Amino acid sequence: MVSETLEIPAQAKQLIEETEIVVAQTQTFAIATVTDYQLAGEELKTIKGRMKELDDLRKSMTRPLDEAKKRIMAMFSPVEDGLKKAENLIKRAMLGYQQEQERKRQEEEARLRKIAEDEQRRRNALATKQAEKARARGNEERAQEILENVPIIPTPIVVKEQPKVKGISTRKVWKFRIIDANQLPREYMIPNEKMLLAFAQATKGTIPVPGVEFYSEKIVAAGR
Prior knowledge:
single chain, elongated
């Protein structure tokens, strides 16, 4: 039944209630004779007409609401668009700052790594010379000890924490771009159903498409 909480014009209420009765009557509808079939056709045309009446009445009631909504949306839309642009601008600036700080961190880490590698090579070269002198004196054990105990310089790691703002966080969002559609696995491909339907209707299934079965269904059409 129609909800009593809605303020519905009397015309609409009457039409809806009459339609509900028609719908209820069709639940036990059966066709056993030619006369039943003809009556069903007339009833179907009546139903189609009733659907048109309901649609027209609904639109007459909702059109003012739709127009009011459009005006409200038009008033807020520019401001919301401006806020979105401002949001994106600030986000890009923040990401740009983070990326620049990361670039500097990597640059500093690379500089320190080169210093550490140079120092490691110097220590290795010094240990090699000392080991050679030990061998020259016939002390192979001492030579091996020198080579095995060269101080190892740890790989420098530069850590720079990004500034923190309460309520603001940065996270990675994985996305994709297709670089060669021909190499996509089948499970990632979606058939173009709209194109297939248009092709079926245009060719009436006379032109085959690999992997597709065209078929027809009968439908009953009713006019007023």
